[in-house]
Design a protein that fits this description.
With about 250 residues, the chain is α/β, with parallel strands linked by helices. The protein is about 40% helix and about 30% strand. The chain has one domain: 3-Layer(aba) Sandwich (Rossmann fold). The chain contains nine helices and twelve strands. The strands form three sheets. It has a six-stranded mixed sheet with strand order 6-9-10-3-11-12, with helices on both faces. Strands 2-1-4-5 form a four-stranded antiparallel sheet. The protein has a two-stranded antiparallel ribbon with strand order 7-8. Helix 5 packs parallel to helix 6. The structure holds adenosine-5'-diphosphate and magnesium ion (2 copies). Adenosine-5'-diphosphate binds next to strand 2 and helix 1.
Length: about 250
């Protein structure tokens, strides 16, 4: 599904990713943990193809093809989805309008018939009910005035509607209370499938109690310095990151 080799990327001339390697197969859920500023969001943004993030070396293969030349919209059409750490507000564009356009764009690309307004509303209302989201959020501007938890749920709703092949969730657990966290986790778990891969960026072990990852990676100073199973997250919770952060410096 995804093979990242020796990835180097810069933001504003500062090298943030420094030789990152990661392989993700279909069906797997990978958690990426690591201290603040280690490059987790940068990795997510680079995979989504956002402006300002410049790949200076290395390779990213998605389904065997070079991902890097593709524009963000092309990546999305090909099934790459990013849930942002800080979801963007889009004043003047209603949530339902954006979601319908996004879903029909992907459906068209997959050779499926577009959904009309009625069909789409039926689908989205059912998914919103599962996430315990109020219908009223459909008719508000995208994320505008949404609470932190509503924004995060809206990201998971988008993911559920788009049915991506590779989903990258950047701190989708942050700012959620326990009830909202469980709903978000249920939403994520419902999308686990042998055809789909997920990368979950998280600061805390808590989400991983509910969405149990196949692999846990620690990112430090722009590269993965340790990989383990779900038990690694527990060890990190106990010991922090300090014992790992020194490793790359010594290697260098
Ligand atoms: P994380 O998500 O792991 O907390 P980030 O990927 O957001 O880390 O940030 C990694 C580093 O890149 C930080 O030192 C941060 O200050 C820097 N950085 C991120 N975005 C920008 C930007 N737009 N301009 C300059 N520096 C940035
Ligand atoms: Mg952070
Ligand atoms: Mg981040």
């Amino acid at each position: 599904m995804l093979k990242i080799t020796n990835l180097h990327a810069s933001v504003d001339g500062n090298e943030i990713l420094r030789g990152l390697n990661l392989t993700v197969n279909a069906g797997e859920v990978h958690a990426i943990m690591g201290p603040n500023g280690s490059g987790k969001s940068t990795l997510a943004q680079v995979l989504a193809g956002r402006d300002n993030y410049h790949v200076t070396a290395g390779e990213v293969l998605y389904q065997g093809r070079d991902l890097l030349p593709l524009a963000p919209e092309e990546r999305a059409r090909e099934g790459v989805f990013l849930a942002f750490q800080y979801p963007v507000e889009i004043p003047g564009v209603s949530n339902v309008y954006l979601l319908k356009a996004a879903v029909n764009n992907v459906r068209k690309h997959r050779g499926l018939p577009e959904l009309d307004a009625m069909e789409f509303l039926k689908l989205i209302k059912q998914k919103m009910k599962q996430m315990q989201m109020s219908d009223e959020l459909l008719y508000r501007s995208v994320n505008e005035g949404f609470s932190g938890g509503e924004k995060k749920r809206n990201e998971v709703l988008q993911m559920a509607l788009l049915e991506p092949k590779l989903a990258i969730l950047d701190e989708t657990d942050s700012g959620l209370d326990i009830d909202a966290l469980q709903l978000v986790a249920q939403g994520i778990n419902a999308l686990r499938s042998p055809e789909r891969a997920m990368i979950m960026v998280t600061h805390y072990q808590r989400l991983l109690d509910y969405v149990v990852p196949d692999f846990v990676h620690v990112l430090s100073q722009g590269r993965i310095v340790k990989t383990g199973g779900k038990e690694l997250a527990l060890e990190l919770e106990e010991r922090g990151y300090g014992w790992l952060e020194e490793a790359p410096a010594r290697q260098a």
